[in-house]
Amino acid sequence: MRLAILAGVAVICASAAYGQVQIGRGNFEPAAPQQTPEDCHMPETAAREFVENLYAAQAALKARDGAGALGAAALARPHARSGSQLSAVTQLEVAAYHALRDEAALVEKLEAGIAEACMPGAVRKNYQQILDKVRAGGTAWPTP
Fold first, then answer.
1. Which residues is 21 bridged to in the sheet?
2. Where are the domains of the chain?
């Protein structure tokens, strides 16, 4: 009996319709498919130079070295093979400018990130909120 239940759950999880239904007010409506440009899909492999420089940028950010992170991100950008990899580099650059507290460069990079087709929706929303706050006369940094 347990095996039959597990098999049923596996079939439901594997079906194409799983997660594609929204429940609203007692009726079921199919969710709108997400349209992503073809180059937003990550390739099976990334260039070695891309990975090494991406990790170096992440390590520099962890060490609070914004300038080092920007340098490593700049070295990773030419080796990106997809839009997703480019958006990863942009996210690191935004974080680096934030760490450096360079508001002018941060605003420019936030605008570029929002315009990228492959930027994840949640990240784009966060960038827009920061940008709106700065444009309203606030600051991109939390106040203590």
1. 30
2. 38-135
pLDDT digits (tens, 9 = 90+) for 28-72: 444 333 445 666 776 667 889 999 999 999 999 999 999 999 999
Residues 6+ apart with CB under 8 A from 42: 82, 84, 85
Give 118-133 pLDDT, tens digit per residue.
Answer: 999 999 999 999 999 8
Amino acid sitting at position 102: D
- CATH number of the structural domain 38-135: 1.25.40
How far is CA 113 from each of CA 20, 92, 94, 120, 124, rounded to the nearest angstrom?
Answer: 28, 11, 8, 10, 7
Task: Give the DSSP per-residue string, 46-58.
Answer: --HHHHHHHHHHH
Whole-number Å distance between alpha carbons of 50 and 78: 8
Its sign, for the CA torsion 63, 84, 33, 16, is negative
Task: Give me the count of residues in the chain.
Answer: 144
pLDDT category of residue 17 using cuts at 50, 70 and 90: very low
Q: What residue type is assigned to position 121 of the chain? A: G
